[in-house]
Amino acid sequence: MGKDEVLFMLFDYSDWNKIFRSFYKLKNNFSNMEIAKWSEYLKQFYRSPPLHFVIARNDNAELCRMSGSDMEKDPSYWLATKDRRLVKFGETGLVKSIQRGEEVVIDRANAYGNFQVKQPYSLKTELDSAYEIVSSLDFNGYKEVFNWRAQRVIDRFGDYRELYDGADIIPEYNDTMSIIKISERCPRGCIYCSEPSPKGMKLYSREKIEQNIDSARRLQLKYHKGHTSLMNEGFINCSDILWFHLAKAYVTGNLRTHKLDNLIRRLSIVDVEGNVTPIGDISSKYWDTILDSVQIQDMFKSQFPELRKTGTFVGVPTVNATDYRFLEELYNKAQRINRVLIGIESFDNTESAFLGKNETSSEKIDAIQKLQGIDYKVKVIIQVGMLGKRFYYDGKWIDTEKGLEKTLRILAQVMRKSYDLRKPDKVHVSRYTLIEGTPLKRLHDEGKVIEPFAPGELDERVDRAFRQLRKSHIDVDADYEAAVEKRKRMV
Ligand code: SF4
Fold first, then answer.
1. 187 and 274 belong to one structural domain
2. How far is the CA of 449 from the centre of ligand 1 (A)?
3. Tens digit of pLDDT for each residue in 381-434?
């Protein structure tokens, strides 16, 4: 290891726990592989490249297996060439970005396949050229991961569209993730969200979920057959998986609390033919068509045995209304669902009430702590800038600065920290972007009850949120914003 790398490790890693985790994973990945020297060509781009091993090379290029401060993230392979090209690939060999010299000519933010292509470059030509270089290298192993060509990459992202629709938000959507869609919409009514519908939430029937799982597996085998073991992340695409549990309990007469009855009555079941049956009209003969949340995950896992990390959305009221033992069963020593996303948005009660998110900060804290008690990795979503600089509510103007400070203060107390050896939580900071068709967008447009930010003010707040959370040793991510904004496909 050269002097540069040692200095990088001493000064660029924020804590030793991450170093330990990175080394541990690299050791597992490379225990049987001869480890080559550090890359020469990467130094054209980085004075101190991140931790890496060269896994394939020739006289003109080197392909490196990368590590970094967060091994959970793509990209995992970087190709650096003598003629100053840097190609970044995800874990399954799909190109993520291409840089020529200083210029990024191809880029995509996540696995929606939304390649941004700089003119006059051609996506197809650039992708083909990158894979041709890779195929000319002498490998130490892992070559099958790179068995792609441009058209196949484009087809892959195109075909994967059938697994979700344009409005679905899949946070941290990366190339190793398998997703299944199990419902549409949400029974709740947050004014900033596009999910609420006058028709309530449609839970897919057993048959429709089975069909969706089959489709996801078919696509995975079509494009990732040689390396399905790498695709160990799963995401259950729905607004809140616990509605399935509560719906089942409701129809079978086993609901323990009736606090959510009004919302449960806004649920319906939709079958493969598209027939919609309101939850209250389901006769006992058809109870079996409603899967409980545990059954859904078991079905997912039986078709995707490689899954190690499965996540989904849950909500504060449903977590609090769900029996602790059931949540334990759903977690099942991390064998079922082990990471959950929960939209907190703000810990300020007035802001929440304005947004139609009718839950108090103490209810939010209860939900987070209940999930932590079972050992789920809890990923909290907060929104910065949703209500502008201030908003008018209940006869007075409310300054949103205080709401943000309160939110950050409570997160610092409640979230498990990045140095937690077992399971740090994570905060997704979303820089609010207006969603067309939502009541909140209309209020922003009218400009009467929400005072907009001055130029640069929102950016400053978002930066501050990141800084404060990191200072509190909380893992923080901006991916949620990318999932909302950049999900539009371009291939
Ligand atoms: S609970 Fe979540 S999905 Fe449902 S309306 Fe609110 S923000 Fe949207």
1. yes
2. 22
3. 999 999 999 999 999 999 999 999 999 999 999 999 988 877 899 999 999 888
The reported pTM is 0.90
Does 148 share its domain with 243? no
Q: Classify each residue of 270-287 as buried b or exposed e, where b means 16 or more C-beta atoms within 10 Å of its C-beta.
A: bbeeeeebebeebeeeee
Task: Give the count of domains, the chain.
Answer: 2
Q: 216-261, pLDDT tens digit by residue?
A: 999 999 999 999 999 999 999 999 999 999 999 999 999 988 999 9
**Pair 217, 337 in one domain:** yes
Residue 491 lies in a domain: no
pLDDT, tens only, 173-213: 999 999 999 999 999 999 999 899 988 999 999 999 999 99
Spell out the residues 6+ positions from residue 423 whose beta carbon is closer than 8 angstroms to its own.
Answer: 375, 377, 416
Instruction: Answer with the one of 155, 176, 196 that is the final residue of a domain.
Output: 155
In a domain, 365, yes or no: yes
Distance 1 CA to ligand 1 centre (A): 49
CA of residue 197 to ligand 1 center, whole Å: 10
Q: Is the peptide bond before 50 cis (omega within 30 degrees of 0)?
A: no
pLDDT value at residue 32: 40
Which run of H or E residues covers position 407? helix 400-414
Point out the ligand 1 atom lying closest to the alpha carbon of residue 357: 6
CB of 187 sitting under 6 A from ligand 1: no
In the reported structure, the alpha carbon of residue 268 is separated from the centroid of ligand 1 by a whole-number distance in angstroms of 17
Task: For residues 242 and 346, state if they share a domain.
Answer: yes
Hey, whose CA ends up nearest to atom 6 of ligand 1? 190
Domain contains 192: yes
Residue 131 is part of which domain span? 3-155
- The preferred substitution site among 183, 185, 186 for testing ligand 1, maximizing ligand atoms within 8 Å of CB, is 186
If asked whether residues 48 and 137 sit together in one domain, one would say: yes
